Amino acid sequence: MNAQTRAKKAGRQVPSSQVQNLSAFVWSIAEILRGDFKQSEYGKVVLPFVVMRRLDCILESSKNAVLEAVKDLPKDVDDATRDMILFGAVGDNVRVYNLSRFTLDKLRNQEPAQLHKNLVDYITKFSGNVRDIFLDKFLFTDQLKRLRDGGTLWQVFERFCEIDLHPDRVSNVEMGYLFEELIRRFSEVSNETAGEHFTPREVIRLIVDLLIANDDTKLSGRGIIRQIYDPACGTGGMLALAEEALKEFNPSIRVELFGQELNGESFGICKSDMLVTGHDPDQIAFGNTLTQDAHRGKKFHYMLSNPPYGVDWKKYQEPIKEEAASMGYEGRFGAGLPAISDGQLLFLQHMISKMRDDEAGSRIGIVMNGSPLFTGGAASGPSEIRRWMLENDWVEAIIALPTDLFYNTGIHTYVWLLTNRKPKERAERVQLIDASGERFWTSMRKSLGSKRREILADAREDIVRIYADFVNGESGESDVSKIFDAADFGYREVRVERPLRLNFQATEQRISKLAEQKAFMRLEKEVRETIEALLQSIGTQFFTNRDKFDQALTKVLKSKGVNVAAPVRKAILSALSERDEDAEICIDRHGNPAADTELRDHERVPLNQDWREYMAREVSPFVPDAWVDESHCDTRDGDIGRVGYEINFSRYFYKYVPPRPLDEIDAELRNLESEIASLLKEVAV
Prior knowledge:
Blueprint: H1 3-10, H2 17-30, H3 42-59, H4 63-71, H5 79-90, H6 104-107, H7 115-124, H8 128-137, H9 140-150, H10 153-161, H11 172-189, H12 201-212, H13 216-219, E1 225-230, H14 237-249, E2 254-261, H15 264-276, E3 284-286, E4 302-305, H16 317-327, H17 344-352, E5 363-369, H18 371-374, H19 381-391, E6 395-400, E7 413-419, E8 429-434, E9 442-448, E10 451-454, H20 457-468, E11 481-485, E12 490-497, E13 502-504, H21 508-512, H22 518-521, H23 525-538, H24 546-559, H25 566-575, E14 577-579, E15 601-606, H26 611-618, E16 627-628, E17 642-645, H27 649-653, H28 662-684
Parallel strand pairs: 1-2, 1-4, 2-3, 4-5, 6-8
Antiparallel strand pairs: 5-7, 6-7, 8-11, 9-10, 12-15, 12-16, 12-17, 13-14
Helix pairs in contact: 1-12, 1-20, 2-11, 3-15, 4-5, 7-9, 8-15, 12-14, 12-20, 23-24
């Protein structure tokens, strides 16, 4: 079953009516918090309650077995053995237990006045891997205290006990949808960005299908192990759907999930999901991926991510800059650093550093905005990062997505696909797919924040087919898929100079400009007045040759025995000169034409062209006196011109739309004028 078939089989996969009903019910519970909590704080109460209820439903049936197992434990048992035995008592490959004598349903039969005490006991009796989530990441005991003090704890607790979140009723995928919907709602009411927490499921499915397209042979058979990593995993949606796709293709495949997340609540949700689905929760780490790589030295088969867009990394720039400077290419950021205002390319470099160097290699799917495609000129950090990726032949394809897909932004986004094991036909080539057109999206009946469009299964299948078949404009696809050599995105920025032409005249107006020259104004007042008087003695003679004026200046200064330093002479020449295209070319001290910095320009010469031929064809016929500054070289290869790389989607997929005929516009204007006149008559009557 290839990727296109998988996409079709997956269907629309929108949240079920059950999830929508659950979301509405939980949202109604949040309304109880109004007054005691700010709207921005609703999620701090509701999300951990949902997680707790989910775990309670899972563990309820094994409660007695766990309590019996703990009685039989030797007194000197170590923590690891203790956990292993109790996890086994829970069964179903679930890596969490609770040693409280209570379940949530049993707590309903206790005195309401004891609820706070009993809930704290219940939470603190979870296994350590979950207890830390509730206490350190959710800070749940603080929220329980606020609920108790506000007199609403029992009311909120009792409502949550009405929900059945057992996996037999609500699957892991549906739980993911439930968390997404709740986070989106909480973010909307608090004016926060829901998109920082999760990615729309159809976008994740597209990335996953693209990642494993054409990997059927590698994923077939028994004994296959695949490790998947997301450095900004949020609530774990990308990891969960990647595993789902691999399991659907090969039920016997072993999938190991790894991730790291900075947001405490999202981390808590993700780790809880790993616990109840049988994954190793320690492979989901908390912290800043860019400064504290929790999976240092690890390599992964598949990596996918949706890092935050346009988020600056100023507050943690020091360790990143230090790693880049001290480790170079041995570290993660040797290729360069992006602008301090946007860290997306830092995440991409981090992922590249975790590509496997074995026969299987690695594949990366990352969704970013347009900035990483083109920001930064030649030799800048972003350009050098693009150069590094393209010259190492890691970039396989870039897909432009429709706008208005995400919950918090309507901007253009792009999926980058990278691998260090390109098939032969893709070597040193890059496929660009423009999937932003109406062919690939459908309007939603009801917008969700900024999300007004979605990619349905048929459209996803179409995109995957175009990618998997390496379409290069065949069969009418020229407007959506094009293939380029990697070098087509590169250029050399050569510095083009024009000769400096100046006239000189010692007029009173020009002499007064000496007051703007710092070197001249540092002189003693008497010296300044002497020089100004001497300059006036030159008269109004007009010079179009700098050397001749310099000789006249030297003569008049010597006549009074005045010696001036080079900076002062330069200041005088600057003040008394004006640019004049009819003047003679100024000559530098080496006997060469001096360059006019104000006329300096830069030409982008495609990498596959010789700069001399380019100048002869594109520049010299129009400015014959121009020349290339051959000292302006690339720091890496030493050749003339600094190398830059950019990927301009608009240029490659631009479609000219001719303006409407003037007659048509005139007719429309006349009709509008008639309508306005009729309306004015009605008003007058």
